Amino acid sequence: MNAAAKHELTPADNNTMADIGHRVERLGIEIADVNGVASELAALGVQQAQNVSSVTRTSGQVLDTTTKLSNSMAEAVQSAEEAERILTASTQQIHDTIHKNTDRMQELSNNSLNLKESLTSVDNNVQEVRVASRAIGQIARETQLLSLNASVEAARAGDAGRGFAVIAASVKTLADQIQGFADQNAQSLEELVEVLSGLQDRSQASAQTATQAIEDTAAATEASTQLTNLSQSVSKLVKDIEALRAPVHENIRASTSINEELSDLDQSVKHFEKQLGTLQRRADSILDISEDLMVFIAQSGVETGDTKIIRICEKAARQIEALMQQAIQQGALSRRAAFDRQYKQIPNTDPIQYFTEYVDWTDAHWQPIFEKVQQADPRIAFSAAVDVNGYLPTHNKIYSKPPSDDPVWNAANCRNRRIFDDRTGLSAGQNTKPFLLQTYRRDMGNGEFVLMKDASVPLYIEGQHWGGLRIGYKV
């Protein structure tokens, strides 16, 4: 019936269908543009939702930190006030004790010095007594000598000198007693001198100790002064912390308000993100409908602007299939290598590029076909093949330049050996219909996009679906 309907179409009908096809094409382009904008909005919505959530979390952390700071400041004030109280009391107690000890030490030092002077005076008196004691001893010796002489003279005089002998004996007895007293006095004086010497030494040591104690007390007084200054510093610190608490509390109130507003904004953005996701799905659905309609019109036999591109794509796809199948049959390429899905990341590439076992072979045999396709129509911007995962091993020469250190430049000029798992890339690689028409915005890097149409034809190698051949062309 469809075949009969085709034969019954008049030239006017064909013109009408062609006109519908052009209108559908323009509609598809506009829908693709809207879809691209919706995709960007959805991505932006997700990013904004993440940013708002991050800001909300950060705001919550700031509020929590500020609250902890306020609590810490309160604790610091309490601790500082307690330290101030203890320091003030301790400083006063130390000051009073040092003052009392200073007075006592000064009195002790004065008493020690007075004792030393008294001992010196006593020592002088003892020296005078010692001299007198020696004189007494000398007198006793002379008296004894006189008594001896008197005894000798009495003995010579006989009975006439008997009275003189009695006197001589009495003088001798007196001399002996004086000598005994003198010796005893001398011994007592020596013992007294030793005691006085010890007292003088101890008095000197006490005076030195008292002097050192006074000096130490002076140092302690300085330390007490420093403690007083420290107490005053702590008091100032308390006042400074108290002055800071007011703005911190104000910050807490402001942070709480901001956090509540951010939480509301977070909920709004999440709702916006959800709605954008719905918009994206609806836009994708509309784009699918428009693309199906373009395919339907192209399959109807009516010539449209896409017909020539589809035929070029079909012809090139058959050539690629034949080349790879021939290589497998001749042993130039193993079937396992032809379906290698172990994508090995190429170091130091941004965007990331990957290597597979068949890349060298496809560069040598596919790239010449892609170059001819690119020259077949002025609208064609590129041609390349992607596997079912969107991996694009070989591209046109203009898009296969060696990577540089500039990721933006690489995104536009190093498009081979990359995985394009976006909607268009995956659809082209996974499509099993005779052909697929898609309209999309091509990312050229550096925030630039170009509206493109994509015609793709599936590739089968050894009866297995390998991927699809893509031709990107200007609208």
Automatic annotation (TrEMBL):
The keyword Transmembrane helix applies. Residues 23-266 form the Methyl-accepting transducer domain. Its main location: membrane. Coiled coil: none annotated. Signal peptide: none annotated. InterPro entries: MCPsignal_dom. SUPFAM superfamilies: Methyl-accepting chemotaxis protein (MCP) signaling domain. It is found in: Membrane. Keywords: Membrane, Transducer, Transmembrane, Transmembrane helix. This is Methyl-accepting chemotaxis protein. It comes from Maritalea mediterranea.
